[in-house]
Design a protein that fits this description.
227 residues, eight-stranded antiparallel β-sheet, 5 helices, 32% helix
Length: 227
Amino acid sequence: MLITIPELLTPEEVAWCRSRLASAAWVDGQTTAGPISAVVKNNRQLDPTSSEATEVGQVVLEALHRNPVFLSAALPLRILPPMFNAYRGGEHFGIHVDNAIRNAPGSATRIRTDVSTTVFFSDPDEYEGGALTVETPFGVQTAKLPAGHAIVYPSTSLHEVTPVTEGERIASFFWTQSMIRDEGERALLFDLDQVIQDLRERHGVEDPQALRLSFVYHNLVRRWAET
């Protein structure tokens, strides 16, 4: 299940973040590559402990916590601090799957990677190529979104970033450990929550059908959640 989140960041937030990222020192992405992904990884990243990564990452985290679509889709238990990558001059990240367990930078905290998120900081007309492609049971899906938009997808998916042949693509990427481990259960809960929100929007917060469905939703979360 791929879920697009329009305007996760406001235009003002995007502009501020891009100004901070423009002054940052980028390093070879191989420094954080695992033994398998190192074979197909060719990009640049920020040092996750740098002031730019920390400050811009905080803006992204605050946006996530106020966004109902992300919260509904990911049902987050823990979110790793956002990381940042850049592609230009043919740089790419070939097809791979994310590591199942990640450590928070500078911390002993480890999380299971259930949900992957990419937040775009470059607009599609600023670069050629650079699409995020994700393999799903329904075929390969492609995302190349406006700056400030995000996409959420299962970390179990094979995915890649195609070569950037002109311009530069800058994005944030990070992982979430969900309270709901099972991808299918998360998808069912997301769909159910979207129906509840739609009923409340059309008929008011006290709509009896929305109340009944909320009863089902919360009891399913109780049954499936890990905390």
